[in-house]
Design a protein that fits this description.
By secondary structure, the protein is α/β, with parallel strands linked by helices. It has a single domain, classed as Glutaredoxin. 43% of the residues lie in helices and 19% in strands. Strands 1-3-2-4-5 form a 5-stranded mixed β-sheet, sandwiched between helices. Helix 2 packs parallel to helix 4 and helix 3 crosses helix 6. It starts with a helix and ends in a 7-residue tail after the last helix.
């Protein structure tokens, strides 16, 4: 059963207003992950408290860093079920988790934060983990 679209819209907006593209179908997921050049951050969004209080704010903080992914995409667990399943199929070696934050470089998964990496931590700690991955795999963002 899917969640009420009215209920999840503010949760979607947390990511889309900072530049994330929503992937609504398995085909959109494959197209995004299939780009074999550059970096892609994929967030499996969720209605859970750790997504609201930790994952989404942590991602927003991390994206203020000098190095950041080239592209940002999100799927919503419990809403776009097929798109979420397809995204998770690209997270080889990791079981499904909500939320999840995956970083791809040149089409290859290079970093993953699972729910257990998010729960019990502050947004700033999650942002620090992501900034470290951005430093390792991403280019500095273009200036204004």
């Amino acid at each position: 059963m899917r969640y009420s679209p009215l209920m999840v819209q503010p949760m979607r907006d947390d990511l889309t207003r900072i530049g994330f593209t929503e992937l609504m179908t398995p085909e959109e997921v494959d197209a995004a992950v299939g780009v074999r050049e550059g970096t892609l951050l994929v967030v499996v969004n969720s209605v859970c408290g750790c997504a609201a209080g930790k994952a989404r704010p942590g991602v927003a903080l991390a994206l203020q860093h000098h190095a950041r992914p080239d592209r940002l995409a999100t799927v919503f667990a419990g809403m776009e079920i097929e798109a979420t399943e397809r995204a998770r199929s690209h997270f080889e070696g990791y079981p499904p988790s909500s939320p999840q934050i995956a970083l791809f470089k040149d089409g290859r998964l290079v970093r993953m934060l699972q729910r257990q990496d998010i729960e019990g931590r502050e947004a700033a700690e999650i942002a620090a983990d992501l900034r470290g991955a951005f430093d390792d795999y991403c280019r500095p963002a273009a200036g204004p």
